[in-house]
Amino acid sequence: MKKVFLPVSLALLAGLTVSCSTTEYKKYAGDEAKQVASILRENGCMDCHSANAPLPFYGNFPVIGSVVKADMVEGTRYVDFTDMLDALDNGKPVSEVDLAKLENTAMSGSMPPAKFSYMPNHWGTSLDKDEKAVILAWAAKERKAHYQSPTVAEEFANEPLQPLMESIPVDSAKVALGCALYNDTRLSADNTISCASCHGLETGGVDRKQYSEGINGQLGGVNAPTVYNAALNFAQFWDGRAADLKEQAAGPPLNPVEMGHKSFDDICAVLAEDKEFTKAFTAVYPDGFSQSNITEAIAEFEKTLLTPSRFDKYLRGDKSALSAEEIEGYDLFKSHKCATCHVGMNIGGQSYDYMGIKNSYFDYRGTGLTDGDNGRYSVTKKETDLHKFKTPTLRNVMITYPYMHDGSVKTVEDAVRIMHEFQIGTAISDADMTKIVAFLHSLTGEYNGKTLQ
């Protein structure tokens, strides 16, 4: 790590503010959630990991002020613990990603940053062994209660990544209708585009194009995410504008760039002309064609698109499922902090994360900003959500190229390097790269008994 030498004003500040280690959390013995909340507060974590944190008095000092402000911005871009603190205080489940990030911090001892840790005003803010033990015990308990897969082997029960469940309960009759609708070009105004056009089941659940082509040759503004395992995402689309698969399925048919219908009434009228399909549809939905019924059927089909992989077999206890290199790659995946955002059964899809925490990805890309780069901001209009995107699943990542929300990265190796540079602030060695990519190969799954290609 490059050693950072701070300006004289920081040294002067050291004499102005002194804090001591706290044991305040111990009064909540028996309630690990409240203990963790107390540690976050008393150790000053919220000073840099909350968008609502006030600027400290020295934040306006010459020289040091810009350092402090930049660190506060970077801290909240990495993780904002405000919602987590509220959940801890009120006995609610915390985000799986927030859990993983706090757990990683406790294990790595990476906070506070080295450039501040020697200063008296940060004495006592580093986690001691007892505080780490409290956080790690709570994290394991929280993961077991809310995020542990029913198929995981006991020895892997507390891993940040979890194996897929066997299946999601579905209505088979609705699945059959949904499958037909998923492949039906009548959902587009000119009868040329189906859901499968952009999310091909033979091509990793994507179309392998930078931007998908809709009616009249129009191009979308972001890269098409995979439909495989999408049922496990906490929200749908890169910007999270759809809460679930049903809501997501209602978007493309009415998008003028994608499928171009004016309304679902038009879609229903077109489908109703097919007497045989109408008969099959009304046998399942007696009230006939409607936006709700059509999108529910498509969503029901998409719930079946789970792709168990060799990595799932490994987490279920089959040690022979992965090679030694792939296991080393998984360990590196965790130690390089990849498993703080790409977590859980879907190995992603559980949070919105800022693109370019350490350096400006968009300056690096050098093509100017587009509406597609707004990310979550497009929905919330909150400045703090600008350039935040739903973290994609890494399942089948080797076959879902090109990468990033803008589809500008062609190889998985380049994607891994970019994520290290812009999200972690480090350069990855060729040796580590080779092993991590080997691990990523193990995430390519099966559908209908066949390995995806």
From TrEMBL:
PROSITE patterns to which the protein is assigned, alphabetical: CYTC, PROKAR_LIPOPROTEIN
Record InterPro entries: Cyt_c-like_dom, Cyt_c-like_dom_sf, Cytochrome_c_Peroxidase/MauG, Di-haem_cyt_c_peroxidsae, Haem-bd
Highest taxon of the lineage: Bacteria
Domain named Cytochrome c: residues: 173-275, 324-444
Keyword match Endoplasmic reticulum: no
Cell compartment(s), UniProt: Cell envelope
UniProt keyword annotations, A-Z: Heme, Iron, Metal-binding, Oxidoreductase, Peroxidase, Signal
Signal peptide: 1-20
Main location: other
Gene Ontology molecular function terms on file: peroxidase activity
Protein name: Cytochrome-c peroxidase
